[in-house]
UniProtKB/TrEMBL annotation:
It is found in: Cytoplasm. Its main location: cytoplasm. The keyword Cytoplasm applies. NCBIfam families: hutH (TIGR01225), PRK09367.1 (NF006871). It comes from Sphingopyxis flava. Belongs to the PAL/histidase family. Contains an active site 4-methylidene-imidazol-5-one (MIO), which is formed autocatalytically by cyclization and dehydration of residues Ala-Ser-Gly. Coiled coil: none annotated. The modification 2,3-didehydroalanine (Ser) is found at residue 140. Pathway: Amino-acid degradation; L-histidine degradation into L-glutamate; N-formimidoyl-L-glutamate from L-histidine: step 1/3. This is Histidine ammonia-lyase. It comes from the Bacteria. Signal peptide: none annotated. GO terms for molecular function: histidine ammonia-lyase activity.
Amino acid sequence: MIIEPGHMTIAAWRDLRGGTPATLDPATAPLIAESAAAVTRILAHHTPVYGINTGFGKLASVRIDDADLTALQRNIVLSHAAGVGDPAPVPVVRLMMGLKLASLARGASGVRPATVALLEAMLHRDLIPLVPAQGSVGASGDLAPLAHMTAAMIGVGEVFVKGERRPAEAALADAGLAPVALGPKEGLAMLNGTQFSTAYALHALIEAERLYRSALVTGILSTEAAKGSDAPFDARIHELRGHKGQIETAAALRALMEGSAIRASHRVDDLRVQDPYCLRCQPQVMGAVLDLLRQAAATLTIEANGVSDNPLIFAETDEALSGGNFHAEPVAFAADMIALALCEIGSLAERRIAMLVDPALSGLPAFLTPEPGLHSGFMIPQVTAAALVSENKQRAMPASIDSIPTSANQEDHVSMAAHGARRLEAMASNVDAILGIELLAGAQGCDFHAGLASSPPIEAVRERLRAAVPTLKGDRYMAPDMEAAIALVRSGALVTALDLPGVAP
């Protein structure tokens, strides 16, 4: 794939995250070269310019001699590589590298072509720096994570090569690459920016889209198990309200239920006037989720195509302008939106599981077992789902409302975008498990309607599950069943062949 700065889509970032080899659009070469040349011209004036011949942050008033400019840029990388915690996942770091390449190639960062080329070569050859996941407050850029990425480029630290951790310098040599000696402005340009926060948020957005779609499938499976009505999905209801996500979600739910013999079996003599909200209000709740994810996607698409380091180089006038594009508040807000969406996907699904195991609500045997009492059936899987929902509720508190001063109060308001985005991976994993449990419960409920089939797409899902997990006829060791169902949700196989709404406009 080609990284086209300023024109990348969510779909393109999804491909990059997934390991598709990527190279930078050759048309960007003149912009990169001219930006680097502008830094050389600015230096020739011998006037103090932040980040080029001065210290950083609170030390911006300290003038640096020309002889020390290379050391200055190396020092900022070494001193700022101060992250802690587990390594960020390789797909997230791949995204971060791609985002940084796209930003540098806009020609406003003053980085030399050779430095950009090394980052491009590392990404293309799958030399992925080991980046500790904790240590950024999401303002003045994601300094620590980006410093660890850049450290690998100067031969310091470690990289992942085909899943193996290796010393960066040795891995570069084996790949026929040499560490770079950073020139004026380059260390700061590499470290400044929102690419770590944005990569994590994009990663979560892609997962959240899959989970939204998967929850439509498991939601209809539960609706069928409870012999719920499709009347609440009638297009006329949703057109009157007017929300785009709600309208599209209702249409998708109708399509998933079309042709169901289970639904046809109780259409005339349906004794239940109204279904519980967890069934009836799926278009309203999941439609709002879709709208929220689309809003987050719009923000992240802009951010991913923008330039967020500081100072910015304007080659046409040989100016270096200091600003605050490194402040990741837009990303923090987007991450909070995704957190809310993930929380609600899981919350609604758990209510459907709880409904199915309650015979007073579902009309099915208690806890979905043929012999309640002797067997406990789905009693504790529902408890597990409830526990995961509560975890996600705690994690869903907005990160963007927090701030803490850093750098001796020079950086006195920060976004917390990095950990706001980072928490989303654990939240998505919880939703995978909740939907996996619903998949099992919904299929088990439908099994009690022997002789009646659901719609073709839902029957295909049931068949896929039953190929790995048989019907629960009596209590057995549940963990393997749950692991198989969760893996099925996480793989995306539930929705691969279905035409369902997504985050793209």
